[in-house]
Amino acid sequence: MRSVWKDSIRWSGLIAVITLVLAAIFSMVSTAFLSGVGWAVGMLIVFVIIMTGVFFDMIGVAATAASEKPFHAMAAKKIPGAYQAMLVTRNADKVANFCADVVGDISGVVSGTAASAVVLQLTFAAGSGDGSTLQFVLNVIFTAVVAALTVSGKALGKTFAITKSTEIIYQVGKIIYLSENKLKIKIFKKKVRNMKNT
User: Fold this and answer.
1) Got the DSSP string for 103-140?
2) Of 72, 94, 65, nearest to 166 (Cα)?
3) Where would you tag: which of 62, 67, 100, 168 has the fewest CB atoms within 10 A of its CB?
């Protein structure tokens, strides 16, 4: 029991640092892209940020919904990505936490900030100033649209993730396989103690 709490505290500390770094990177990248571009391009960037959050949320749900068993036979046949997909399902709690909570929540915050920047650009383009009635109206509309796209996108993503969890996690496994074998980036440790659906 003590080791479980120790692992949980260690993971919480690690994920806090990762969240801090990723949030800073997302914020800097989005700010860099938004500076000097028109409001139309800004809207496209906001949409991409929203879809990024939806995509990672879908992976997080798929990780918890997928069964480990289908990947056992695939791994036995040495199919590339099958072993990594099996590890994703074994670490479903951490994968879901990273994809849905970390990346998903960061995308939500950054998309809101980016939307505010687009509203300001659109307000100036329309000939109004900061704090004007037009800015207030546009801010309400953009906030509502961003929220609606995020929620509806995640709802569709969850349905797809649950029905196609095995296929999704296998594709994730192939990406991890390529990162480990081509880029030499290790995602999981070789020894994994937690088993799922075995």
Assistant:
1) IHHHHHHHHHHHHHHHHHHHHHHTT--TT-HHHHHHHH
2) 65
3) 67
